[in-house]
Amino acid sequence: MVKEKISLLQFFVLLNLFVYGTNLVVGSGLDAKKDAWIAILIGVAGGILLFLMYYYLYTLYPDLSLVGYSQKLLGKYAGGFIGLLYIIFFIYEAARDLRDVGGVIGATVLNETPMIFISGVMILAIAYIIYLGIEVLARTAEIFWGFVVILGALGSLFFYFSGLIDVKQLLPLLESGWKPVLKAVYTNTIMFPFGEMVAFTFILPYIEKKKQVLKVGMAAVIVSGLLITYSTAINLSVLGVDIMTRSQFPLLSAVQGIEIMNFIEHLDVMAVLVLIIGVFFKISVFYYAAIVAMADLFKVTHKKRLIFPTAIIILNTSLIIAGNFTEHLNEGKFVLRTIFPIFAVGFPVLYCLIAFFKSKVTR
Amino acid sequence: MVIKMIKKYAAVCLLVVGVSVLLTGCWNSKEINELAIVTTMGIDQAEEDGRFEVTIELANPPEVAGGSQSSGRASTATVYSATGDTLISAIRRIVQQTPREPFFPYTQSIVFGEELARSGIQDTFDLLERNQEFRTTPRVLIARGHTAKEVIKILSPLEKIPAKKLVKTSEISGKSLGETITVKVFEFVDQITSESAEPLVGGVSIIGDKEQGTGVSNIEDTEPNALIKSEGLAIFKDGHLKRWVEKEDARGMLWVVNKIESTIINLDCNQEASALSIKITNTHSSINAVIKNGQPTITIDVKEEGEVEEVLCNIDVTDQTTIQNFEKQLEDKTKQEIERAIKIAKEEKSDVFGFGEAINRKDPGLWKQIKKNYDEEFTALEVNIKVDAYITRSGMRTGSYNQE
Asked: What is the pTM of this model?
């Protein structure tokens, strides 16, 4: 079934971009106020556990996607039904991220452009890259990863040189104790962004060197987790907790503050670039997972035929998903607490248990 | 075969049309010759027709650039104003008078009239934060004793764009005199929303005849009729301007908040008052809270480094003990300034130093208890000041020719 191959490095950068993509920009863990970065750091530990679970399933069925082994474990119909739910979930997620980018770009940069054009151009480019296949997606990720890293390093330097960073803004640690931090970990730093890694169960079978997947995957989770922690801490120390929690798009507000020698300033485009690149790969991965799931479930031989119809579904879903951005964000909070855990934790745990007992019985 | 070719041709056409429509990105396009760049915005209390009077200054590009296009006679900027219940409605009214659309991303300063500042400006920042055209970096200034409109209208020499002059005057004065600061919008908002700190804002006023200062003639004379002067530091409390702080008192405040880059301190020498000037070259200060038996006290540590800049008395600056005496005097003088500044802040019950933040950093639990009646706590707060002064150099000469 699997013909295309991606290398370990490509897997690393793809997972990296996927995890910090939207997170760098829209921020997470802000329920914990000044301690948001601690909440994210704890979230990374949760992310590692989740990745271990997906990896365990992968070691059992190295050539199958989640839909494939759910049918093996639960039978054709029950497994197929769950597979169907996953397809809807991935399409919904891709649509959510598309709405994120449409909403944020519309609110900040392209104020008068209708959202359908922003989202439309985006999904068109993504559909094209998916059409070319996972190998092309992975190679593109390699290039853009380097680009994002350079932007990030430059941005960091600019923050330091412009003297905007005031570490005191992060103090005191644990202002209101552990409770709000742990609450934020539960509600918004494990599921988003790490729970979303469930989409990678559809990409793991394409990796060339199967033995090193664990090592590289863990490295990717940790590196991206630390990067999010770092950028959240920087944003907090630049903007202060009040402005940070009220910002639609914290990184942009922080970057706008950079002014060095009356010359290096107005760097908004850096933040916007990071957002677009990150969201691009995030949507791509969900979209690709949805396509693979459909192809597996319905035994479609020409996967490429599914791509453009799905693009239209994602685009339309992203537009009708919510009446306004506030509704979209509130819906996001609700989904993160209810639907996400089912798909990111619930079903995979179920599969792990079944697989475990099955192996006992057969022995 | 033919069908295949037609298909290919159609695909290419579609691609060309699609790309040229989508990627040129002209939906939001703004042509530069249809925009008027706003350089500064002033906000005053409106006398009639609404809550605010907004004044914007638009740069006049040919005159700024100079050269052949410049008539040499027209002003480099034009000022417009209108009133409205909200800032944006006032701004939109201005468009009735301008042939071009005002463009805000390059706004350098936001000036508030004193009257409005006294009646409260905590509500006015929402537009500046929310609107995507404004940035968070314009400097906030208060037009001292005037309306913002009057201050913005003054044309002055050296800087072609009046707005730039406003910001620069304040910045340079802060840098070399250490008696004022320029805060950015987001810093101001950060402090005004904080429960544990209050903002300090620099003031600008007009000296000379403000009626005469608005024409091009003002920059033709060697002694202009009116000039902008950076003057005083405004203390706020809950978004209301409470009091202007002057000279040494203002410097006392800035010592504490670590905002002094350079300043001149005059010391007494041989019973002659203010006969020796020290140029401060390097300073650092930190505020820490110490909790003893549930009672917070504040410690301020100031380190300053300076050079002997001017000697008007008979003294040997090559002598080690002399220098040490001056260091001691410098420490005392700085300490007195800081003490006076703290007294003033306590009178206004305005924690401009961020002592509350220091307490919160040290003991968040205690802060939660005392923040409800922090005004009283602040006035009663014990503050210990520790100053270390070092005089490191004495310029290009060893002894002074005043020395006998």
From this structure: 0.84
Q: Single out the residue of A241, A231, A182, A212 nearest to residue A45, CA to CA.
A: A182
pLDDT tens digits, one per residue of B179-208: 888 888 888 888 888 877 888 888 888 888
- Tokens coding A127: 């559909």
Contact B253, B346 (CB under 8 A): no
Q: Do B127 and B87 contact (CB within 8 A), yes or no?
A: yes
What one-letter code names the amino acid at B72?
A: G
Vertex B190: Cα angle to B85 and B175 (nearest 5): 105
Which amino acid is present at B14? L
Chain segment A232-277, per-residue pLDDT in tens: 898 888 888 888 888 878 888 888 888 887 778 788 888 888 888 9
Q: Is B268 exposed, middle or buried (0-12, 13-18, 19+ CB in 10 A)?
A: middle
The minimum CA-CA distance between B122 and chain A, rounded to whole Å, is: 14
What the block records as the tokens of B69 is: 């296009």
Cβ of B129 within 8 Å of Cβ of A243? The answer is yes
Alpha-carbon Rg for chain B, nearest whole angstrom, is 27
- Cα–Cα distance for residue pair A279/A287, rounded to 1 Å: 12
| C-alpha–C-alpha distance, residues A201 and A290, integer Å | 11
Does position A172 have pLDDT exceeding 90, yes or no? no
What is d(CA A248, CA B110) in angstroms, rounded to the nearest whole number? 23
Question: Cα Rg for chain A, rounded, in angstroms?
Answer: 20
Helices (H), chain A: 8-26, 36-60, 66-74, 76-108, 115-132, 134-161, 178-184, 213-246, 250-256, 268-298, 307-320, 325-341, 347-362
Please identify every stretch of chain B with a pLDDT value under 70, giving residue numbers as ranges. Answer: 22-28, 62-74, 403-404
Nearest by CB to residue B186, choosing from A107, A114, A257, is A257
Q: Give the one of B27, B136, B137 whose C-beta lies nearest to A117's C-beta.
A: B27
Location of structure tokens 């040919």:
B62
CB contact at 8 A, B200 and B257: yes
Domains contained in chain A, CATH given: 8-355 (1.10.4160.10)
Please say if the pLDDT value at position A317 is more than 90. yes
List the domain boundaries for chain B.
30-245, 247-404
**Residue B190 and residue A243: Cβ atoms within 8 Å?**
yes
**Looking at beta carbons, which pairs linking B358-361 to residues 24 or more positions away fall under 8 Å?**
B358/B287, B358/B288, B358/B289, B358/B298, B359/B196, B359/B289, B359/B291, B359/B296, B359/B298, B360/A172, B360/A175, B360/B196, B361/A168, B361/A171, B361/A172, B361/B289
Q: Is the pLDDT of residue A167 over 90?
A: no
Contacts of residue B262, Cβ cutoff 8 Å, sequence gap at least 6: B175, B176, B178, B279, B280, B281
Distance between A116 CA and the closest CA of chain B, angstroms: 11
Residues facing residue B258 across a β-bridge: none
Could you tell me where the DSSP H helices lie in A162-199?
A: 178-184
Q: Does residue A300 sit at the B interface (CB-CB below 8 Å)?
A: no
Q: pLDDT at position A280, please?
A: 92
pLDDT at residue A1 tops 50: no
Q: Name the strand (E) or helix (H) holding B320.
A: helix B320-347
- Helices A36-60 and A213-246 cross at an angle (nearest 10°) of 150
d(CA B147, CA B310): 39
Average pLDDT over residues A135-142: 92
What is the ipTM for the molecules in this complex?
Answer: 0.77
User: Could you say which of B28, B184, B360 has the minimum Cβ distance to residue A111?
Assistant: B28
Please give the Cα distance from B252 to B250 (Å, whole number): 5
Phi, psi of B194 (to 5 degrees): -75, 140
Asked whether the beta carbons of B77 and B144 are under 8 A apart, the reply is no
- Token code pair at residue B168: 């620069």
Taking CB atoms and an 8 Å limit, are B27 and A110 in contact across chains?
yes
Q: Tell me the CATH number for domain B247-404.
A: 3.30.300.210
